[in-house]
Amino acid sequence: MAKKAKKKKKKTRKKGKGTDKQTLLIALGLLALTIILVGLYFAYRWYRHKEPHTFVSEKYYVKGIDLSHHNPIPNWNNVREEKISFAYLKVTEGVTHKDRNYAVNYELAKNAGLKVGSYHFYTFGLSGEEQAKHFIQEAKCMEGDMVPAIDIEHSKVNLYNKDKDYKKIVIQELKSLDSTLLAHYGVHPIIYTNKDCYKLYIKDNFRDNILWLSDPINEPEDAAIPNWRIWQFTHKGELSGIPNEKFDFNYYRYSYEQFKELLLP
After folding, report:
1. 149-164, pLDDT tens digit by residue?
2. Among 47, 153, 170, 214, which is least packed by CB within 10 angstroms?
């Protein structure tokens, strides 16, 4: 009698191993792609928002610099040769501090042919009238010089405080400083500030003042802040002959002809 043929058992693949491997490779590929895209995004943001070190705009032609005793005294003839037209110099701070380099920089900058302005660093919590008197006593604001400016920003002495009464006092004394300078010079002082301080203290309170805005990332918005005239676009400007030192660079909003609006009569 013939033997029955044994049925061969079909080998079955174990499901799961190949699929898991493919899934892992896809996941690793997606992770690598995500890392690359995130890296490119932050590299783009860094490149786009990094502070420039030179004057590069083709939109603004009137260029300026501002400095205090924290900066070395530049060769002002070299500054003029770099086609910088104006300079704002720190004079005073609070009711007692005087900038040690102001007088020297004022004379040298004027002799080099720059238009020179003088500014006061406003100290929160102190009398605005007394700060104005301190500035008036020390500043060399002559006919044809730039309109005096007030620097308003948070610092080690000007602390940010959410308290409404604190904010009210800051604005109140700033108005006193503004009105005292207006009475003496016949014009409202220019207000230098940044976006945060603008929203907290300046907006809706000083509509008659020309604004000087500090923003190393974004150009001032004309519609949002129509009374801006000077844009401080970097804190990392470089001047020839002074290696390893950084300066504040600025643009005036309009033409050389219109720049006259910033000069004392």
Report:
1. 999 999 999 999 989 9
2. 47
